[in-house]
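Example record

The entry below shows one chain as it appears in the dataset: sequence first, then structure tokens.
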Amino acid sequence: MKIESGTVVTLAYDITTASGEIVESSDISGPISLLHGVQTLIPGLAKRLEGLEEGGEGTFEFGPEEAFGTSADAPTNVMNKAEFPAGTAFEVGSKFVASMPNGQPLHLEVREVADETLTVAMIHPLAGQTIGMSVRIIGVRPATAKEKQAGHAMVKPPPPPPKR
């Protein structure tokens, strides 16, 4: 079966910097399953996967607009100043690093300062960079009605990687 809108794609992947350093890999996190045409790792991936079949492989390069964007187009969020350590000085342009639930860093840049809140841009660590991505298609199947309604693939998560 070929990958097309409305199929669930399970893939293994590596994401690399322009210099070839692997920054994310399904060898660590496990393969992922996505509802093609709805979910994606990065914006440019869907069109590159279109038409591939189980067992297919590809290596792609993505500019910032197809990958993690730029700091200028990063999404923003309003945060309470109390969420930061006491005594933190806030100025437009100040930068902080927060940890996402999965442990990955999220770069925050202050865009606006109010009395009790801040508007921060949430900038992916790879924003503004060209990245590489290698993929191997593990499986392709039609999405169920429930998956189409939910807007995402529904699969049992992979087991955690073994402890070393």
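Notes for this example: The radius of gyration is 19 Å. The mean pLDDT is 91.
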